[in-house]
Write a structure and sequence with these properties.
About 75% of the residues lie in helices and about 0% in strands. It has twelve helices and no strands. It is globular and about 75 Å long. The two termini are about 35 Å apart. It has a single domain, classed as MetI-like fold, CATH 1.10.3720.10. The chain is an all-alpha fold. It is a multi-pass membrane protein.
Length: about 290
């Protein structure tokens, strides 16, 4: 028994830190979401579900936070998975310089998101930005836009920048999944006269499903937690056009509305629980199918 308990001692320090900085603050945040905690009064009153009624009562601002977050998550997940799979399929072939191309595509992943945001804020500047300068230089000035200040383009620009940054990470996961597929399946398919589409439909997709499950879960978790790329590029503007849940939380806290801010965080916490449960259930089903 001493031998079995002994390794537990080494985890006590990490458990204590986790409790102090994650678990306890998390439960405190849930509690404060049911209060009127703010910077304008000294006392804190329990108000039940009033903060959640404020969020879901049809207030356009808060509903836009939720709508933009869901839209961002689904769109970036589809784009990253689709482009990442396309690149993985190409780079899984015996093309010349494939290792170099893999490194180049993956490089944006290791650059801090805030740095990427600041760089693209300059690149997409309407007057002196590299994109508009290039379009003007080739006679396509009509295509030069206010990428980050136009209400019709700002959110799409954020999605494009985030996809550019994150697609390399998804590509690497899917590439590893492709390389794990035994060659004998392809050889057997070729003997039966299967073309690429047949191989893709009946071999690649089914055997790549565990990797696709992982990338989908990662994309959804990241999408619902997005903050830094939005904050760096547009700070939620113009107006509320690019606000997401975490920029909303940030602004509620900056206005001293701590109760509403923690309520928004609690909503996100509940969403993440649902996603986590769905992900675990889906992955368990995939394991059962694989067996």
């Amino acid at each position: 028994m001493n031998k079995s308990i002994y390794p537990f001692y080494f985890s006590i320090g990490a458990l204590v830190l986790y409790l102090l900085f994650f678990v306890i603050p998390g439960f405190m945040g849930i509690y404060f979401s049911f209060t009127d905690w703010n910077s304008y009064s000294e006392g804190i009153e329990f108000i039940g579900l009033d903060n959640f009624r404020t969020i879901f009562s049809g207030n356009e601002k808060y509903l836009s936070y939720l709508n933009h977050t869901v839209t961002f998550t689904i769109t970036t997940a589809i784009l990253k998975t689709g482009i990442g799979l396309f690149l993985a399929l190409i780079l899984n072939q015996g093309i010349k310089g494939k290792n170099f191309h893999r490194v180049v595509i993956f490089m944006p992943v290791i650059v801090p998101t805030l740095i990427v945001g600041l760089i693209f804020k300059s690149v997409l500047h309407p007057e002196v930005g590299l994109v508009n300068e290039f379009l003007r230089s080739i006679g396509l000035e009509v295509l030069a836009k206010s990428w980050l200040t136009d209400i019709h383009l700002a959110f799409k620009s954020i999605i494009a920048v985030d996809t550019w940054k994150g697609v390399g990470y998804i590509m690497v996961i899917l590439l590893a999944g492709l390389q794990a597929i035994p060659d004998m399946y392809y050889e057997a398919a070729e003997m039966d006269g299967a073309n690429f589409w047949n191989k893709f439909k009946h071999i690649i997709v089914p055997l790549l499903m565990p990797a696709l499950t992982v990338t989908t879960v990662l994309n959804f978790i990241y999408g619902f937690k997005v903050f830094d790329i939005v904050y760096a590029l547009t700070n939620g503007g113009p107006g509320y056009e690019t606000e997401v849940l975490y920029t909303g939380v940030f602004k509620e806290f900056s206005l001293g509305r701590y109760g509403v801010g923690t309520a928004l965080s609690t909503v996100m916490f509940l969403v993440m629980i649902v996603i986590g449960f769905w992900a675990v259930k889906w992955m368990s089903n995939e394991d059962e199918v694989g067996k």
